[in-house]
Amino acid sequence: MVVVVFESSLGRLRSFWFLHAMFRFKNIRELTCLFVTLYILMSQSLADDQDFMEEFLKREYSLAKPYRGLGFSSSSQWDLMGTAVVTPDHVRLTPDMQSRQGAVWSRIPFFLKDWELQVQFKIFGQGKKNFNGDGMAIWLTKDRMQKGPVFGNMNHFIGLGIFVDTYLNAEKSHDRAFPYISVMLGNGTLSYDHDNDGRFTELGGCTAIVRNALYNTFLLVRYSRNRLTVMVDVDGRQEWSECADITGLRLPTGYYFGASAATGDLSDNHDIISMKLYQLTVERTPEDDEEEEITLPRVDGMEQFAVDVEDPGMSGVQFFFTLLFSILGLSVLAAVGLVVYGRWKENKRKRFY
Ligand SMILES: [Ca+2]
């Protein structure tokens, strides 16, 4: 969106220069007038774009300055967890100290279908390159406020996790540089493998040199019509570079946004400056609206998301005990039947006399 804003302003500017070629300036006053007009037009266009963006900003799902009452007030829409603290400039999930876990979680379940999340954050610390960790994650998951081994959140999560992994755990992995951003979709049974930096469950990702960077990092997550795109801006150029693009990704609604971070033997400051959620206007066909409601996240055509709901059948031991108890049950029934029959016969004989 920043790109859109920037490019559209630039577009207007270009068209003005085209007009400019048709003018001839007689004196400095005309030139000044031209610059003033240009300035007013530009600031006007920027304001228009800003208004346009603000219209679609969903404040109830956004976290931005000033963080009044965040985590404490009953009117706040976010909860803090672990080592997370709020300062006037950021929400610090972990300080640059060993073995810390912190998170911030939205209190309101999320039901929009087409959306875009822009996260502004900063990761920095005293440690030299490769002597820092572990990283942070952005979440949209069924459960919230859980502690665990996945960047400060639970393992076997259900929903979307986007990891900013700042430490390379896998020993034999030289094909990618760290920090590395990766996308994972959890269905409750998939496990995040920390020792391999989640490589086997990764749906997409990219290297992004976000640590100790000059500028704050911007991460964009766009989800629309079952397509998830992740883009990143690390060097303050206000230009997005593509990081991941996954189609056929199906995410149920009613989940919670969150951000978490963790340090271990190595550490860093993990700061969230803002998380802004925008609603996207997307034309939907009747087929889109008729689309089945899903209960578990999945990616079309991926085996690991096929949930086995069939009866797995009996094992040998189960079969043996089932047979044993059936025989025992039948024997008891037969014995009871015989006793009842014997009594009935005796009663009949007594009545006869
Ligand atoms: Ca790692």
UniProtKB/TrEMBL annotation:
Location in the cell: Endomembrane system; Golgi apparatus membrane
Keyword terms of this UniProt record: Disulfide bond, Glycoprotein, Golgi apparatus, Lectin, Membrane, Metal-binding, Signal, Transmembrane, Transmembrane helix
GO cellular component, one term: Golgi membrane
GO biological process: endoplasmic reticulum to Golgi vesicle-mediated transport
Chain ranges of the L-type lectin-like domain: 55-280
Transmembrane segments: 319-341
Name of the protein this chain belongs to: L-type lectin-like domain-containing protein
Species assigned in the record: Monopterus albus
